[in-house]
Amino acid sequence: MKFTAAQIASILQGEVEGNPEVEVSQLAKIEEGKKGSLTFLANPKYTSFIYDTDASVCIVNDDFIPEKDITTTLIKVQDAYTAFSTLLEYYNKVKLNKIGIEQPSFVSENVSYGDDLYVGAFSYLGDNVTLGKDVKIYPNVYIGDNVTMGDNVVVFAGAKIYSESIIGNNCVIHSGAIVGADGFGFAPNENGQYEKIPQTGNVIIEDHVDVGAGTTIDRATLGSTIIREGVKLDNQIQIAHNVEIGAHTVIAAQSGIAGSTKIGKHCLIGGQVGIVGHITIGNRVKIQAQSGIGRNVKDDEVLQGSPALNYGDYNKSYVLFKNLPQTVKELNDIQRKMDLK
């Protein structure tokens, strides 16, 4: 796809300085810009590159005044970083804007859907599936019976959405994600064997949620596993049955949350964090990577370690821990000196 500087300026409500008809077809870092590419300058540390870049078009802040001659066409906007992000979003939407039902695929007769649906080849849509407008389902996706999706949902190749799941508007489900698999529910019988407890609930994902590649969200035993509005889940995260994650919480890769735990709003959870079941984590909590959480957590706590401690206490303790061999040696030396007296 090619765009002229004038077209880009129109999208960003910016002003062109240079050739409005110059065309670009790719994006690049300013230090790696080539002819036919679009870049941006937002960080003053990179200003020197604008005088040497071969990029055809560069987005800059509207107060930028070149100190030397430049060859690139400028698009001046109020905030170059925000404008470039907007352009990336627009470009991605255009790139993914496929329409139609490819064959072979299976779409049940009673599936209902809005305008501009795309279903990729080898996908399966079960009975009573309801899809909103502008839904994009890529190849090899499974969508079980009675699933509901809102508008502007993207489900990338190979994702699996089990029956009864509810997905809101403007959500993204990445490749290999599994939504609605059975929770890990087993009970020992009198013979010491484990019998499966039926998982009869579902998963509810609210609006503007991103689910990373390979992430799994289990259905509830009863009721719902709930992912609230604006939650962002990285790749390879395990969310167990009946978990609830509060609005606008962000969780990094390889974290695991055990059953029935409730996580508050606006939390930041690092990679490889483990959280036990049946606890409550408050709002605006920050948990450092590789921490283990085994207790209730109050609002605004910052935690690190396994089991996790207050972040400040952990750092103080770690300084002592690093010096422990030397401390033990000094204590042993003192003990020997005392024994000689």
Automatic annotation (TrEMBL):
Q: What class of enzyme is it?
A: transferase
State which Enzyme Commission number(s) the record gives: 2.3.1.191
Q: Which Pfam families match?
A: Hexapep, LpxD
- Catalytic residues per the record? 241 (proton acceptor)
Looking up SUPFAM superfamilies in the UniProt record yields: Trimeric LpxA-like enzymes
Which pathway is this protein engaged in? Bacterial outer membrane biogenesis; LPS lipid A biosynthesis
Please list every transmembrane segment annotated in the UniProt record, as residue ranges. none
What are the entry keywords?
Acyltransferase, Lipid A biosynthesis, Lipid biosynthesis, Lipid metabolism, Repeat, Transferase
Which stretches make up the UDP-3-O-[3-hydroxymyristoyl] glucosamine N-acyltransferase non-repeat region domain?
22-89
Catalyses:
a UDP-3-O-[(3R)-3-hydroxyacyl]-alpha-D-glucosamine + a (3R)-hydroxyacyl-[ACP] = a UDP-2-N,3-O-bis[(3R)-3-hydroxyacyl]-alpha-D-glucosamine + holo-[ACP] + H(+)
- Return the InterPro entries for the record: Hexapep, LpxD, Trimer_LpxA-like_sf, UDP_GlcNAc_AcTrfase_non-rep
Q: Which HAMAP family match?
A: LpxD (MF_00523)
Q: What does this protein do?
A: Catalyzes the N-acylation of UDP-3-O-acylglucosamine using 3-hydroxyacyl-ACP as the acyl donor. Is involved in the biosynthesis of lipid A, a phosphorylated glycolipid that anchors the lipopolysaccharide to the outer membrane of the cell.
Q: Which family does it belong to?
A: Belongs to the transferase hexapeptide repeat family. LpxD subfamily.
Subunit relationships:
Homotrimer.
Full protein name? UDP-3-O-acylglucosamine N-acyltransferase
Species, as recorded: Gangjinia marincola
- The gene name on file is lpxD_1
